[in-house]
Amino acid sequence: MDQERALLRELSAKKEAMEQELEALAECLTAGNGPGLHGNLVDRQGFPRADIDIPTVRGQRQRVACLMNDHKQIMKQIEEGLGRLHQLIRSSSGGSAAAAAGPAPPTLSHGSFELAAASPPPPPAPTIAVAAEAGTAGPTNGVLVPPGAEQAPSSDIPPLLAFARVHEVRFGWGV
What we know:
By secondary structure, the chain is mainly α. It folds into 2 domains: 2-94; 136-171, no CATH class. Helix content is 55%, strand content 8%. The protein is built from 5 helices and 4 strands; from the N terminus they run H-H-E-E-H-E-E-H-H. The strands form 2 sheets. A two-stranded antiparallel ribbon has the order 1-2. A two-stranded antiparallel sheet has the order 3-4. A hairpin with a 2-residue loop joins strand 1 (107-110) and strand 2.
């Protein structure tokens, strides 16, 4: 486990160094009237720009491309290493800690590692039938009766509009 942590620290240090070098290269490429990573190296007439050193810019752009590829590889290695480290921690903790903690949370499989669910799902919302039994809202001959309404709205007023009219003052609509 200590070897895995040391490897992750080493990979993280490499990643930090790459990111610093990328920032320095991006700063050099965009400084002053620089072309940046994707700007033109030629003017409108197709001639090389006289205000920049084209071989240097091309070399810096090539170095940025190499660093970006290396950064992707390092990040993939870090991801895999973290997965292995968590697996080692899980296996080394044994059954005693797991039994004391209670049932394990459900996990979602994602590639080479698993994600633990943050919390259990919320309870299901009450259905219209439950709401009708409670007298809050429910269907009346196929028409939705808003809470607080004495009877079903007239057929010329849509149910949603009737609901909005009943709750205008409550929510501050149209006041």
